[in-house]
Amino acid sequence: MNTPVQPVDSVRHTDRMWDATESLRADIDRLEFLEQLGHGTLPLDAFRFYIEQDRLYLAGYTKALSLLASRAPDATTAAFWATSAASAVDEASLHESLLSGSALPPSDVQVEHSPTCLGYTSYLIATAATEPYPVAAAAILPCFWIYADVAVRLAGAAHDVVARDPEHPYARWVSTYDSEEFREIVSAARALVDEAANQATDAQRDAMIDAFVVATRYEAMFWDTALHPTPWPHSRMAVSQ
Ligand SMILES: Cc1ncc(CN)c(N)n1
């Protein structure tokens, strides 16, 4: 008797997720924030706003990764996400040093989450806590992959900025994400998401694509809002009056 042969799916599910964000990624490449960052013409106060928001983002992202680790199917996978959570704390030390140094304009405004930052972190935490593991892993992947992808192109554009002053805040930012070490981490994260897709139901695999698209949208909005702020409709002052 012939044993039924399972069809082999030669397309990686992460490739499908990547393809679903093609036009979104083209929009990201054209974002004024990233173009100006690459050319070194981005206003420093816009970069400061971005770094302040990103510091808040990293706190939420660390929680989302820790939740994801707790839901991972095996110990090795849990350790990868938990190590990534610890690395996000290290990543935040770049932000601390940029904000406490003299390269960025000082600010004494009390920083609160922008709507985009709160939306993104809340989405990641809620998804990590409540969605099936494959969907939660897919939602976190753009945080790795989009950054590595953008950094490669930005490193080319920012070549002059880096050559002029490797300690320039934009040069430090670009070289953090344009590194072989980061690309290896991204590739390991991708492999885990593909593995999760192989164990997922068809409905979950569709939901993985949706989650990847939503998180990629937030990545685009996050950069854009630093140059084109979308503040809360009512300020903190107005609320307390
Ligand atoms: C918004 C955002 N997305 C991703 C990363 C890269 N960990 C980040 N620092 N900030």
From TrEMBL:
Catalytic activity: 4-amino-5-aminomethyl-2-methylpyrimidine + H2O = 4-amino-5-hydroxymethyl-2-methylpyrimidine + NH4(+); thiamine + H2O = 5-(2-hydroxyethyl)-4-methylthiazole + 4-amino-5-hydroxymethyl-2-methylpyrimidine + H(+)
Domain Sox C-terminal, residue spans: 1-86
GO biological process: thiamine biosynthetic process; thiamine diphosphate biosynthetic process
UniProt key word Transcription regulation: yes
Sorted UniProt keywords: Hydrolase, Thiamine biosynthesis, Transcription, Transcription regulation
InterPro entries: Haem_Oase-like_multi-hlx (IPR016084), Sox_C (IPR021934), Thiaminase-2/PQQC (IPR004305), Thiaminase_II (IPR027574), Thiamine_Salvage_TenA (IPR050967)
Cellular component terms (Gene Ontology): cytosol
One Pfam family, short name: TENA_THI-4
UniProt pathway: Cofactor biosynthesis; thiamine diphosphate biosynthesis
Keyword Transcription: yes
Summary of the function given for this chain in its UniProt record: Catalyzes an amino-pyrimidine hydrolysis reaction at the C5' of the pyrimidine moiety of thiamine compounds, a reaction that is part of a thiamine salvage pathway.
Protein name: Aminopyrimidine aminohydrolase
